[in-house]
Request: fold
Amino acid sequence: MNEEQKIIELKKKIDNYDFRQQEREIKEQKRLKKLTAPIKKKKRKFNVINFLFVVFVMYFAFTAFNQYEMLQDLNGQIEEREIVKADVEKEAMELKQDVEKLNDEEALMEIIEKIARDQYKMVKPNETIYIDKNKNDNKLIQGIGSEEDLNN
Reply:
């Protein structure tokens, strides 16, 4: 049996060697075919997943840009409102001071007199009014006003 096993092993080796030799020849023929065959360009197939990804990225960029512009606009509005708020607070403080002055009788009389002189052009008895022609406030003299401005 030893000899028979050796013979079987030798047959396997020979068969295996022949098989490998044939395999090498077939591979070489395929390689030569590839080299001699004209080169074909691969066509790119339309990939839905890549297309959807690109659309998503574009939508994301567009949305991010719009939100950035909205934030800038809202920040501008906030700054405007803060300026208006500061003005209103300043006016409120002035009104509080005026209310405090109204509690004092002498200050109240001064305020009333000032309003009567400025807004209603009232004068004290036996008081003479002089109009300064060189004063910048007199629009009629400068030629840019009308008699209505002078009456008001």
Q: What stands out?
A: The two ends are 141 Å apart (CA to CA). The mean pLDDT is 80. Residues 61 and 67 are 10 Å apart (CA to CA).
